[in-house]
Amino acid sequence: MKNFEISVLDLAPVKQNRTIKNTFNDSLNLALAAEKLNYKRFWLAEHHNMASIASSATSVLIGYIANGTTKIKVGSGGIMLPNHSSLVIAEQFGTLESLYPGRIDLGVGRAPGTDGLTAKALGRNPENINQHFPKQIQELQKYFSTENENSLVRAIPGEGCDIPIYILGSSTDSAWLAAKMGLPYAFAGHFAPQMMERAFEIYRNNFEPSEQLSKPYIISCVNGIAADTDKEAEKLATTLYQAFTNLIRNDRKPYAKPIEDIDSYWNPTEKAHVMNMLHYSFIGGHETVKTKISAFQNFFEVDEIMITSHIYENELRIKSYEIFRKTVDDLFAITA
């Protein structure tokens, strides 16, 4: 089995009967635990108009997490670039990199991270996104380069900063783009697993080396809920199941506590849809998640597995990441 890194994707989940401040404190405590456990990076994702997710001001939250930690890489998974000016993002991440040198990642995607009405409020133009998104990435690369110092428009801070750019995706379009630009590729397998295998195939087969990257680098994001027993993990997972069912119902309320009988919450059609979206999820006790991760990695051979864990109680969420760390270490010991 190919060795791989493990990382964290945090959506800054808002829980029922908790405040936004509680959410941010939970995210920082999780980042501190991930750092202690030697996770490679801690990413936050841009979403808007969702009562269940508090990471809308992603750059600000990255600064909060980076300031509270000391060594773990912190970044965006991702910034939805068409929601913003390329110059503004270059300045924001240039500021972050200047404050926390060598620790900031910039993952970018083209999706809105929200509904159509909110996307319009963000100033997106859906007619030119597919053409403009690659140009925005090139603009970022230009703003970060020292060669831009003679330009009439400069990113200060940002210019001369070594900020790695990652392309995010949930379809094959992003795979073609990441391959052509020679950039690392992160796939949203935690909610769009159907196209993942094909996307990786396209990326690997068409990759063109660049100044940033000499060979393909793949991150796969998956859902992960680990506990002492399979039964406990399945109960904890009912928070995740409720959240995805709510998305189907267009109900974006905060995350709910686990429940005993999830079948009383969703109907058979909703269940089938949710389980399809959650096809690549590692849910169970130590041995179960070890078997699932091993099978996943033997098939996909990714460079990094990024785990997002929708668990209501933050202490149990941190424990879940502790179990995943031990599980991966055990797998490496077996293959050594």
Automatic annotation (TrEMBL):
Name one matching Pfam family: Bac_luciferase
Q: GO cellular component terms?
A: cytosol
Q: Which residues form the Luciferase-like domain?
A: 17-298
**InterPro entries assigned to the protein according to its UniProt record, in alphabetical order:** Bact_Lucif_Oxidored, CmoO-like, Luciferase-like_dom, Luciferase-like_sf
The record's listing under Gene3D superfamilies reads: Luciferase-like domain (3.20.20.30)
Q: What are the GO MF terms of this UniProt record?
A: oxidoreductase activity, acting on paired donors, with incorporation or reduction of molecular oxygen
- PANTHER family for the chain: LUCIFERASE-LIKE MONOOXYGENASE
Family, per the entry?
To bacterial alkanal monooxygenase alpha and beta chains.
Its recorded name reads Luciferase-like monooxygenase
Gene source species: Frigoriflavimonas asaccharolytica
